[in-house]
Amino acid sequence: MAFGGFETSQDAPMAEMNVIPLVDIMLVLLVIFIITAPVITHSVKVEMPQASSQPTPANEQALQLSIRADKQIFLGDTALSLAELEAKLRELAARNPQQEIHLKADRNATYDLVARSMAAAQRAGIVRIGFVTQAESTTNE
Predict the structure, then answer these.
(1) Is 30 inside a domain boundary?
(2) Cβ–Cβ under 8 Å, residues 136 and 52
(3) How many folded domains does the chain comprise?
Protein backbone atom coordinates (compact mmCIF):
# COMPACT_ATOMS: atom_id res chain seq x y z
CA MET A 1 0.00 0.00 0.00
CA ALA A 2 1.75 3.13 -1.16
CA PHE A 3 1.30 6.54 0.33
CA GLY A 4 2.01 9.69 -1.53
CA GLY A 5 1.13 11.23 -4.84
CA PHE A 6 0.50 9.73 -8.20
CA GLU A 7 3.93 10.57 -9.53
CA THR A 8 5.90 7.55 -10.72
CA SER A 9 9.41 8.64 -10.04
CA GLN A 10 12.04 5.89 -9.98
CA ASP A 11 14.19 7.87 -7.53
CA ALA A 12 11.64 7.77 -4.69
CA PRO A 13 12.06 5.06 -2.05
CA MET A 14 9.51 2.25 -1.91
CA ALA A 15 6.92 3.04 0.75
CA GLU A 16 5.32 -0.42 0.95
CA MET A 17 6.13 -2.94 3.64
CA ASN A 18 7.06 -6.40 2.34
CA VAL A 19 4.96 -8.80 4.45
CA ILE A 20 5.85 -12.00 2.59
CA PRO A 21 8.78 -12.92 4.89
CA LEU A 22 6.58 -12.24 7.92
CA VAL A 23 3.85 -14.53 6.56
CA ASP A 24 6.43 -17.23 5.79
CA ILE A 25 7.76 -17.14 9.36
CA MET A 26 4.27 -17.24 10.84
CA LEU A 27 3.32 -20.25 8.70
CA VAL A 28 6.48 -22.12 9.75
CA LEU A 29 5.73 -21.38 13.41
CA LEU A 30 2.14 -22.55 12.94
CA VAL A 31 3.30 -25.84 11.41
CA ILE A 32 5.77 -26.39 14.27
CA PHE A 33 3.02 -25.71 16.81
CA ILE A 34 0.60 -28.11 15.08
CA ILE A 35 3.22 -30.87 15.05
CA THR A 36 4.39 -30.45 18.65
CA ALA A 37 1.04 -29.80 20.38
CA PRO A 38 -0.13 -33.46 20.37
CA VAL A 39 3.22 -34.61 21.71
CA ILE A 40 2.97 -32.27 24.68
CA THR A 41 -0.56 -33.28 25.66
CA HIS A 42 -0.06 -37.07 25.77
CA SER A 43 0.74 -38.63 29.10
CA VAL A 44 3.95 -40.51 29.64
CA LYS A 45 3.93 -43.97 31.18
CA VAL A 46 6.39 -44.02 34.05
CA GLU A 47 7.54 -46.96 36.10
CA MET A 48 7.81 -45.59 39.61
CA PRO A 49 11.23 -46.04 41.22
CA GLN A 50 11.81 -47.75 44.52
CA ALA A 51 13.02 -45.43 47.22
CA SER A 52 14.88 -46.27 50.35
CA SER A 53 14.05 -44.50 53.56
CA GLN A 54 14.95 -44.71 57.19
CA PRO A 55 12.66 -47.00 59.18
CA THR A 56 10.42 -45.19 61.62
CA PRO A 57 9.85 -46.58 65.10
CA ALA A 58 6.73 -48.68 65.42
CA ASN A 59 3.77 -46.84 66.86
CA GLU A 60 1.90 -49.14 69.24
CA GLN A 61 -1.34 -47.19 68.91
CA ALA A 62 -1.42 -47.16 65.09
CA LEU A 63 -3.82 -49.50 63.35
CA GLN A 64 -2.48 -51.81 60.65
CA LEU A 65 -4.59 -51.64 57.48
CA SER A 66 -3.44 -54.35 55.08
CA ILE A 67 -4.57 -54.82 51.49
CA ARG A 68 -3.68 -58.09 49.81
CA ALA A 69 -3.31 -58.76 46.10
CA ASP A 70 -6.48 -60.88 46.14
CA LYS A 71 -8.46 -57.74 47.13
CA GLN A 72 -8.92 -58.69 50.78
CA ILE A 73 -8.77 -55.90 53.34
CA PHE A 74 -7.58 -56.50 56.89
CA LEU A 75 -7.75 -54.13 59.85
CA GLY A 76 -5.30 -55.69 62.24
CA ASP A 77 -6.01 -59.40 61.82
CA THR A 78 -9.71 -59.00 60.97
CA ALA A 79 -10.87 -59.34 57.37
CA LEU A 80 -13.40 -56.65 56.41
CA SER A 81 -15.31 -55.47 53.38
CA LEU A 82 -14.92 -51.85 52.29
CA ALA A 83 -18.25 -50.85 53.92
CA GLU A 84 -17.35 -52.66 57.16
CA LEU A 85 -13.94 -50.97 57.11
CA GLU A 86 -15.48 -47.50 56.98
CA ALA A 87 -17.90 -48.30 59.81
CA LYS A 88 -15.09 -49.72 61.99
CA LEU A 89 -12.82 -46.74 61.27
CA ARG A 90 -15.64 -44.32 62.07
CA GLU A 91 -16.10 -46.06 65.43
CA LEU A 92 -12.35 -45.92 66.15
CA ALA A 93 -12.09 -42.27 65.09
CA ALA A 94 -14.95 -41.36 67.44
CA ARG A 95 -12.97 -42.86 70.34
CA ASN A 96 -9.65 -41.32 69.32
CA PRO A 97 -9.71 -38.32 66.92
CA GLN A 98 -5.92 -38.55 66.44
CA GLN A 99 -6.05 -42.21 65.41
CA GLU A 100 -3.25 -43.17 63.04
CA ILE A 101 -3.34 -45.88 60.38
CA HIS A 102 -0.39 -47.67 58.82
CA LEU A 103 -1.34 -48.81 55.33
CA LYS A 104 0.41 -51.91 54.03
CA ALA A 105 -0.60 -52.71 50.45
CA ASP A 106 0.70 -55.63 48.44
CA ARG A 107 2.65 -54.51 45.39
CA ASN A 108 0.15 -56.35 43.19
CA ALA A 109 -2.90 -54.81 44.88
CA THR A 110 -4.96 -52.56 42.64
CA TYR A 111 -4.61 -48.84 43.01
CA ASP A 112 -8.40 -48.58 42.97
CA LEU A 113 -8.74 -50.57 46.18
CA VAL A 114 -5.96 -48.63 47.90
CA ALA A 115 -7.58 -45.32 46.91
CA ARG A 116 -11.02 -46.49 48.02
CA SER A 117 -9.63 -47.62 51.38
CA MET A 118 -7.95 -44.26 51.89
CA ALA A 119 -11.18 -42.46 50.96
CA ALA A 120 -13.10 -44.62 53.44
CA ALA A 121 -10.60 -43.66 56.14
CA GLN A 122 -10.96 -40.00 55.28
CA ARG A 123 -14.75 -40.17 55.36
CA ALA A 124 -14.51 -41.90 58.75
CA GLY A 125 -12.47 -38.99 60.12
CA ILE A 126 -9.00 -40.55 60.00
CA VAL A 127 -6.52 -38.00 58.72
CA ARG A 128 -3.21 -39.57 59.74
CA ILE A 129 -2.29 -42.32 57.27
CA GLY A 130 1.23 -43.68 56.94
CA PHE A 131 2.45 -45.94 54.15
CA VAL A 132 4.49 -48.96 55.17
CA THR A 133 7.08 -50.13 52.67
CA GLN A 134 9.63 -52.87 52.62
CA ALA A 135 13.22 -51.79 52.77
CA GLU A 136 15.15 -52.01 49.51
CA SER A 137 17.54 -54.93 49.38
CA THR A 138 21.19 -53.98 49.01
CA THR A 139 22.16 -57.09 47.05
CA ASN A 140 22.03 -57.19 43.27
CA GLU A 141 19.34 -59.56 42.11
Answers:
(1) no
(2) yes
(3) 1
In this structure, the strands spanning 100-105 and 73-75 are unpaired
Does residue 53 lie in a domain region? no
Give the contacts of 52 (CB within 8 A, at least 6 positions apart).
135, 136
Q: Is 114 inside a domain boundary?
A: yes
Cα dist from 64 to 21, 59, 80, 101, 129, whole Å:
69, 10, 13, 6, 10
19 is a domain residue: no
Give how far Cα 133 sits from Cα of 5, 51, 89, 111, 139, Å. 84, 9, 22, 15, 18
Burial of 114 (0-12, 13-18, 19+ CB in 10 A): middle
Question: What is the chain's Cα-based Rg?
Answer: 32
Domain at 105, CATH number: 3.30.420.270
pLDDT at 108: 84
60-92 tens-digit pLDDT: 678 888 888 888 888 888 888 988 999 999 998
User: The domain containing residue 78 runs over which residues?
Assistant: 63-131
